[in-house]
Amino acid sequence: MTKIKIAPSILSGDFANMGKTVEDVQKWGGDYIHFDVMDGVYVPNLTFGMPMCRAIRKHTDLPIDAHLMIVEPEKYVEQFCDSGADIVTFHPEASKDVAGTLAKIKAKGKRCGLVLNPDKEVELILPYLDQVDMIVLMGVFPGFGGQKFIPSVLNKIERVAMLIQASGRAIELEVDGGVTEQNAAEMREKGVTVLVGGSSVFRSPDPEATIEALRG
Ligand code: DX5
Ligand code: ZN
Question: Residue 174: helix, strand or coil by DSSP?
Fold first, then answer.
């Protein structure tokens, strides 16, 4: 079995000290830096954008996993790639041209992916299975860290894992939102390959041990 990757979400990090936050993630053994971009339109919250991506890029060699919770991601994906993001994912219903936006990310030599909210059908991503490098299943409705995992997403993990296997492509399957040391094992059993951990990692008394526990 392949080793599960852990992507700590710096949304739960120290905003006054983002350089140190990503250095800590790397020191603790995280695999990706999960970077939550919110525009106050697609989700009712605002976070950070390309300048922050560029700023943290200098503080870590870990891949930056940029999760765009924004409308019309097609306007910004290339700038995120140029700002040091390695993986760029977005929500298909927020884009007027999903295939074209995925192609823009690939043309920059980066990995691309689509994110499904808990109420979105798996069918939404089927047309793009031959293009994506990552599928992200939200365990919560996007907008805020620290929410509780919605259990019905577990069945979706299994379904998407089977679709990925049938595709024969090396697509990563990430779960984002509400991941804890208590529920991670079930997600791993259902076929997840990347787990995002925001509050579970940053509020842990021992983040390194929590990352190891999430990895299983
Ligand atoms: C939610 C974000 C998540 C969030 C996860 O809108 O996309 O990445 O940071 O935080 P936790 O792990 O605390 O649910
Ligand atoms: Zn996220």
Answer: strand
Q: pLDDT tens digits, residue range 94-120?
A: 999 999 999 999 999 999 999 999 999
CATH number belonging to domain 5-215: 3.20.20.70
**Catalytic positions, please?**
36, 176
Is the separation of the CB atoms in 133 and 113 below 8 Å? yes
Q: Is the pTM higher than 0.90?
A: yes
Cross-strand bridge partners of residue 67? 36, 89
φ and ψ at residue 29, rounded to 5 degrees: 95, 15
- Ligand 1-lining residues (CB < 6 angstroms): 9, 11-12, 34, 36, 67, 140, 142-147, 176-179, 196-200
Mean of the per-residue pLDDT values for the chain?
A: 98
Which DSSP state fits 24? Answer: H
- Provide the terminal-to-terminal Cα distance of the chain, rounded to the nearest Å: 12
Distance from C-alpha of 49 to C-alpha of 76, rounded to nearest angstrom: 9
Q: Coil, helix or strand for 139?
A: coil
How far is residue 48's CA from residue 36's CA, in Å, rounded to a whole number? 8
